[in-house]
Amino acid sequence: MKKINDRQLLSDLLIRHNLLTVFNKEHLEHFNLYMLEKGEVVFSVGDHLEELLLLVRGRVKISTPLPNGKSLLLRFNNSPSMVGELEFVTKRQARNSVECLSECLLIGIKFNLLYEHYYNHPAFLQYIVQHLGNRLYSSSNAASLNLLTKVENRFASYLLSMLTSTDDSFEEEIKTSNLVETAELLGTSYRHLNRVINGLVEKDIVERRKGIIQVKNMKKLEELADGIKYE
Q: Tell me: the pLDDT tens digits for 79-88?
């Protein structure tokens, strides 16, 4: 996580995402701007957070640990969104892990500042309640998806989420080196996920070669996802 000392960029991002209706200008000098690379972890389970983080550019993946040591995919967050809101409200350690899927910019706001000036601030409370509501909805949705839908459909949705960037461009390939992790995130076994991928290859939807999965038929993949979204 790299701190960016660019107050003008910080101000521009707050204006772009209409956040000056939530926060007072006199407090902006205490806000921090961070840049994270693709694959970098924002925070992990058990971390003690000191800042509320506003994702203002990029895309992150959020997962939660299971008792067997594996992880389960909860959702993908696009900008603008928030991470750390549950930890801010409950004052507990992080329950989930957050990983950047692209280069990300996040605005950090110290919990102490928020407790002192915004804990009873109507605009801020409405803002954070909206994000908490979205978190509850997406977590419930992910639990339903993992219980009630086929792995083939979940993997199609996962592929679409991983391959489509925040600027709506499309990357044609995804590495297969982390399929064990992907299987865990989707709540299935590595062997079963391999069978699913082989089935997609037979249907000529994807191609598997040299450590990557390449999408050959985007339309068929979208049909297979059938509107399933980890968001």
A: 899 999 999 9
